[in-house]
Structure formats: C-alpha cells, structure tokens
Amino acid sequence: MSAGYPWPGGHRAGLCVTFDFDGESPLLWRRRDDPPGDAAELEQRRYGPRRGVHHILDTLDRTGVRATFYVPGWIAHTYRRAVAEVHAAGHELALHGWCHEPPADLAPDELRATLTRASDLLAEISGVRPAGYRSPSFRMSPEGFEVLAELGLSYDSSLMGDDRPYRIGDLVEIPVDWATDDAVYYRYTGGGESHPPYGAPSLYDAWHAELAGAREAGTLVDLTMHPWQSGRPARALRLRQLLDDAKDFGDLWIGTAGELAAHHRDTATDAPGTLDLPTRTLGWPL
C-alpha cells in the first residue's frame, strides 16, 4: 500500500467507475418554473437512457468492471426497464435525488421525502435498498448529511475534501473531483457555450494521467460519467481502452463506491469529521 491508505488486497491505489444516470432530469429541475419549449436539449439528454446506457453496459461487460450508477427516482420511474437492466448486469444503484434536486435547494423535510421516495423505488426495482448518495452537481449542504444518516445510508460521494475515502459524521465520503467528471470535457448543448466538446482522445489522455498520479500517490480516482455524454460510441470505446489499461496495471483496486465505503468503515481509523460553513459571525464574507 502507498501513502498510508489500506487499499483492499494491498493494492497501491483505487478506482471507482461511476455514472450519474440523470438523463433530462437536471434540465427539468432547473426549468421547473419555466418548462423548456425547445426539444433539442431534452432529446440530447434522453439519449442517455435510450441508447447511451446500453453502450456503457456493453463497455463494462467487456472489461469486467462493476460500476455504481447514481439514479434520480424520476429516471427510475420513467425509464424503469433501463434501470432494471443496470441492476441485472450486476452494478450498484445509488441515490441521486428524485429529479436532480441539490440539497441546498430543499428544506431538510423536503430532502428526506424525495430521497425516501427514490430509495423505495430503487429498492422495488433491485430488491436492495441503496446504501449511498451523490448530490446533484456536487452541491451539498451540512443538513443534507444529517438527512442521509437518518435514512440509514452509509456513504456519500459529493465532496472534494480529500483524495482518499474519509469520514463526515456517520457517513463515509467517497470523494470526487471535477477533473474526473466527463461533463468538463463533453457537456455541450449549444446556445453559445464557450467551447465545443473535447474529443474522446483528450479525455482518455487526461484520465490516464489521473490514474498515473493516483498510482504514484496511493490515492483514489473516482470517475464520474453521464450516459448521455460518455455513452456515445467513440467515447465508450475510449472508456473501454482506459479500463483495460487500469486492469492491466495490476496495482489498482477497482470496485464500486459501496464496496469501498464498506471497506473504509471496516478498516480505517480516521475520526469522524464535520462539515461546517462560514457564517457572518465569523466575518463572512472573508
């Protein structure tokens, strides 16, 4: 093991392959008071549950990698067959709100209600109640962690405070990073955005470098992808090549976020942390 973190099986570093299976739900939430009249972005996002997820599942099957899919309840309701196929293929289903609502936009009671509704539906589809959660757009509130703990979840994967698993209260945090989110490279919906999407080779090179850095430092790479973006064929092909490379290294632990959270809970000795925000009593803004 490297950098002091006890990776499973004595591996040098870790890799989680995850997907935010959100389809059109983020757009519907953002435009909830002003429904979009243009079908273009809605259809672009619907590519994920219609076709992209199937290219992703084929990629994962070819590489033998088990992934974690963070699924809004609305997506599970609207595209139930696709979500059931993800579960049938052996992948973990975890929470991602009901319709991609960031916790900071909801009162605790509202968050509790949306997550309970989503958890009930995912448990109905899979027979297993979700153990983890990822906040939409990586936006998390301190009160949100209290709700997650009340609902009996064991981990969150929304924050960037470390490059190894760590603790926040009763939950294990499986950290993320914008540099390993495909939206930074691929998200493009037209309408005057600053740059067109990067090609698949650019993301492959960048993420190959992330794996090299993690192997050197003994840290985690938590890939965050979206089937409506990474599910396009050329991108799925490059992802398959990256995962093949990761397996060939031989020193990377590769597994689901839930598996890593359970390992951390069983083996790590870090003390529970807290999540506090600055307040005006501290002179905010600083």
TrEMBL record:
Annotated protein name in UniProt: Polysaccharide deacetylase
Organism of this sequence: Streptomyces tremellae
Start and end residues of each NodB homology domain: 38-255
InterPro entries attached to this UniProt entry: Glyco_hydro/deAcase_b/a-brl, NODB_dom
Entries under Gene3D superfamilies matching the protein: Glycoside hydrolase/deacetylase
Classification via Pfam families: Polysacc_deac_1
